[in-house]
Amino acid sequence: MSTGDAADRDVNEIFVYSxxxxxAKSPFWAALSTAxxxxxxxxxxxxxxxxxxxxxAGHIVEPRPLSFERIARQAKMVVCHGGHGFISSSMMAGLPxxxxxxDLEKRLNGEAVVRTGTGAAVNLFGVTANEIANAIHxxxxxxxxxxxxxxxxxxxxxxxxxxxxxxxxxxWYSL
Length: 175
Hints:
Blueprint: H1 6-9, E1 13-18, H2 27-32, E2 39-43, H3 48-57, E3 60-62, H4 68-74, E4 75-80, H5 84-93, E5 97-101, H6 104-116, E6 119-123, H7 129-141, H8 143-160, H9 164-173
Parallel strand pairs: 1-2, 1-4, 2-3, 4-5, 5-6
Helix pairs in contact: 5-8
């Protein structure tokens, strides 16, 4: 599902998948307002406070979930809560990720993003807007994350869809 190089696709958006449990006053939203590029957000049933804050910041709000294929076409990177499904989809699409986690499971998923070199991870709580912004800006601005995300995506594709020759060899040797 790799979408190719973001530079080749002329995209500059940050796609944000968030939960309503992230308070409107969270440093997370302040960090996003410093992105300097379009930010597209999906949150199921956002509060009026969220919507007002995003309107002031000029963020694009999606009223319904987007297909990951569309996200991959439009975004240069994703920012998410660190859930396994979203991170896996980002890796499969070749998009770098900044996981802003709030619990142990999502922290471990974020650490996997860091270990693979496909992005960054930062704790939602106990950090400043600057710390969150620095993580997002690093993933957005340094091409090494995009390159590594595409490499991982290609490796996933290769493993999911082995070549016809290796499929035939496997079938032959299993006889």
